């Protein structure tokens, strides 16, 4: 497989779904499946959307919403809307500029960008974008490599570290297995030496050589390791991948500054609770002790407001940014964020909220089945 050539700008998308259609038309099938696929039967992938669609806002009226204000502050970073870009690996698979293009789009939109640990562009290079950067870590078997990546993120000016905690092992992603998916030449994990950065090889039966992941991720990680990380950095610490209220409470005890309620976009445990359904329990468990962000299924400004009304401080945006990148490079990613901002402003006015903080007063309901 060869890398995808840089496409031209997406033609006049009116919503994020338009960008998704343009991206699907531009992508080889295996690449599209890599972006869109989940694990197993993709129950959790579908449930993320179904759970958001099942919720309905109860708008207020006569509230003077002439100038809605979406400005927010997420994990000590200013943001023009309550959105940050989620960590997503190997973005040069979709466009030659990869993470650098996405970070530039985030800079233009005024939102934080999370540099993935498996970025195809180094954090030092991404920092040249001038965006507000967060840095993602997985817990590696080699703690020294983890510490080195943390040092590099701090030196590059990253403002927070996100530890993804729901990958003791990689979920079984059937689309990729059936496609025999592997990274093309020229796309690699830029933060690692060549021997670590290469894609997992295929076995004769077409399955992935799981030793690649066994050698990378540490399934023995516990809360004591998180406590070590907390002591190791002065950056705000965010734990991504929490669904259980008990784990949320433990995260606060261990020193987390924020939690991302997430089922990994339906790519880990198939059958895991949708993030929007787990959110109220997590928020109740931690109260105001830390920020609570939501990740999973966000496709519109209305989805953002539903998340805030259900207890989130903000959201992480994932696949729609990749759709924009694939459909139009930096311009496409910027268009995705611009569309979302316009939708948030519209939704704020129509639901009767002048400021983002007012969304905490909104009511949500479900229609009878």
Automatic annotation (TrEMBL):
The protein's Enzyme Commission number: 1.-.-.-
Spell out where the chain crosses the membrane.
Answer: none
Q: Which residues form the FMN hydroxy acid dehydrogenase domain?
A: 8-369
Q: Which InterPro entries match?
A: Aldolase_TIM (IPR013785), Alpha-hydoxy_acid_DH_FMN (IPR012133), FMN-dep_DH (IPR000262), FMN_HAD (IPR037396), FMN_hydac_DH_AS (IPR008259)
Question: Which cofactors does this gene product need?
Answer: FMN
Keyword Transmembrane found: no
* Broad enzyme group: oxidoreductase
Key word ATP-binding present:
no
Question: Which GO molecular function terms does the record list?
Answer: oxidoreductase activity
Q: Which UniProt keywords apply?
A: Flavoprotein, FMN, Oxidoreductase
Pfam families for the chain: FMN_dh (PF01070)
Gene3D superfamilies found in the cross-reference section: Aldolase class I (3.20.20.70)
Source taxon at top rank: Bacteria
CDD domains, sorted: alpha_hydroxyacid_oxid_FMN (cd02809)
Q: Which family does it belong to?
A: Belongs to the FMN-dependent alpha-hydroxy acid dehydrogenase family.
What's this protein's name?
A: Alpha-hydroxy acid oxidase
